[in-house]
């Protein structure tokens, strides 16, 4: 079969970016960079203009997520990957339990397993395309899972494990691809953390965590414990959550951030809040996701990968193609026509499309995408 398929221009989406991260950045965010070129770019992150920018980000996120009293919006450099290590150093006291149901929910568990001063974690595993939350386990002080498994398109509930509060445990939820799309009650978490390159339409390299008083207290206590004679725990400066909290309270980061990233993030947060906040963003993404799932269910050659409708993500949609249709060829033909980042997660190894339907994506472009896929399949 030939890979050369030219889609009529009238069929193409207005914007062909459908990545699951990095995701589409709106033109207005790029314009904000230009507007801030002389005032913000190339200036000290410890001076008032950039600190005001960080303050606006923290206040905007507190509004967007309806953050409970006592919770704090904290940020730092390194992305959610760095936050996994930070949590091992600064939040898990002794032993953690993990729900593992895909590549990203497993990566945090692997980091905890390799941390020399922590006990082996308890793993509650299910097959890709499904999910399993951790269960109440003796001696566990931290329960961890992902709100949205980016690799498979599975969304999970965010609710404390029954009995975990009485146990003195805290709850950490990786929200990297779910934050800004999926509804959440922040009070059901102690650290709801994410990177901004998904729903918040920015670049990677930054992590944001909404922390409860319990998480803040633990971070301070664990760092203090490193001063005790014979202490095995090591909290390097870059992975010190206490330091990140202290700096965030001053509207800054420990080390120099990407100011351009902060500008785009602040613009996206204001855009989301001005349009109606999380409720608006969720409804918009749910509409786009529904268009894809309904298309796949009507199709003769495409099928939603996640069978349980209640677990289907409205942030990242995964669609299996019949073996007679090469997803690789479809993805390449889309790219040849300017429609990019529609490939399935590489390690999952399925004949699959994966579509990011974050708030910046227009639902009308999702409709156009489905028609383009049909056109390619017809002409391959």
TrEMBL record:
The keyword Protein biosynthesis does not apply. Pathway: Cofactor biosynthesis; pyridoxine 5'-phosphate biosynthesis; pyridoxine 5'-phosphate from D-erythrose 4-phosphate: step 3/5; Amino-acid biosynthesis; L-serine biosynthesis; L-serine from 3-phospho-D-glycerate: step 2/3. Binds 1 pyridoxal phosphate per subunit. Its main location: cytoplasm. InterPro entries: Aminotrans_V_dom, Pser_aminoTfrase, Pser_aminoTfrase_mycobac, PyrdxlP-dep_Trfase, PyrdxlP-dep_Trfase_major, PyrdxlP-dep_Trfase_small. The gene is serC. L-glutamate binds at residue 46. One of its GO terms (molecular function) is pyridoxal phosphate binding. Residues 139-340 form the Aminotransferase class V domain. Residues 1-24 are annotated as: Disordered. GO terms for biological process: glycine biosynthetic process, by transamination of glyoxylate; L-serine biosynthetic process; pyridoxine biosynthetic process. It is found in: Cytoplasm. Homodimer. Catalyzes the reversible conversion of 3-phosphohydroxypyruvate to phosphoserine and of 3-hydroxy-2-oxo-4-phosphonooxybutanoate to phosphohydroxythreonine. It catalyses: O-phospho-L-serine + 2-oxoglutarate = 3-phosphooxypyruvate + L-glutamate; 4-(phosphooxy)-L-threonine + 2-oxoglutarate = (R)-3-hydroxy-2-oxo-4-phosphooxybutanoate + L-glutamate. Belongs to the class-V pyridoxal-phosphate-dependent aminotransferase family. SerC subfamily. Its cofactor is pyridoxal 5'-phosphate. Pyridoxal 5'-phosphate binds at residues 80-81, 104, 150, 174, 197, 255-256. NCBIfam families: serC_3. One of its GO terms (cellular component) is cytoplasm. It is an enzyme of class 2 (transferase). The modification N6-(pyridoxal phosphate)lysine is found at residue 198. Keywords: Amino-acid biosynthesis, Aminotransferase, Cytoplasm, Pyridoxal phosphate, Pyridoxine biosynthesis, Serine biosynthesis, Transferase. Signal peptide: none annotated. This is Phosphoserine aminotransferase.
């Amino acid at each position: 079969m030939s890979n050369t398929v030219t889609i009529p221009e009238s069929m193409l989406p207005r914007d062909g970016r459908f990545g699951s991260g990095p995701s589409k950045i709106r033109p207005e965010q790029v314009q904000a960079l230009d507007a801030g070129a002389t005032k913000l770019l190339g200036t000290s992150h410890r001076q008032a203009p950039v600190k005001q920018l960080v303050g606006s980000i923290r206040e905007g996120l507190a509004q967007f997520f309806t953050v409970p009293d006592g919770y704090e919006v904290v940020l730092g450099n390194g992305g959610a990957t760095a936050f996994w290590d930070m949590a091992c150093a600064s939040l898990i006291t002794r032993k953690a339990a993990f729900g593992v149901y895909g590549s990203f929910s497993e990566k945090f568990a692997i980091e905890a397993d390799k941390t020399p001063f922590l006990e082996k974690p308890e793993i509650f595993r299910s097959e890709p395309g499904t999910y399993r939350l951790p269960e109440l386990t003796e001696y566990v002080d931290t329960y961890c899972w992902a709100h949205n498994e980016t690799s498979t398109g599975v969304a999970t509930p965010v609710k404390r494990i029954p009995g975990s509060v009485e146990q003195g445990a805290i709850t950490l939820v990786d929200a990297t691809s779910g934050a800004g799309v999926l509804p959440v009650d922040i009070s059901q978490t102690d650290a709801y953390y994410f990177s901004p390159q998904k729903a918040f339409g920015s670049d990677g390299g930054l992590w944001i965590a909404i922390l409860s008083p319990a998480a803040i207290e633990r971070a301070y206590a664990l760092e203090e414990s490193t001063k005790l004679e014979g202490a095995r725990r090591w909290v390097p400066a870059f992975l010190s959550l206490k330091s990140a909290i202290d700096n965030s309270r001053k509207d800054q980061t420990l080390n120099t951030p990407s100011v351009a990233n902060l500008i785009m993030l602040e613009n996206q947060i204001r855009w989301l809040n001005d349009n109606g906040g999380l409720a608006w963003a969720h409804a918009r993404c749910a509409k786009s996701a529904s268009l894809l799932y309904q298309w796949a269910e009507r199709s003769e050659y495409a099928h939603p990968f996640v069978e349980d409708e209640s677990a289907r993500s409205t942030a990242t949609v995964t669609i299996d193609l019949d073996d007679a249709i090469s997803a690789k060829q479809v993805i390449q033909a889309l790219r040849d026509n300017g429609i990019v980042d529609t490939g399935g997660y590489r390690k999952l190894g399925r004949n699959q499309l994966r579509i990011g339907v974050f708030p910046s994506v227009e639902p009308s472009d999702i409709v156009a995408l489905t028609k383009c896929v049909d056109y390619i399949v017809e002409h391959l």
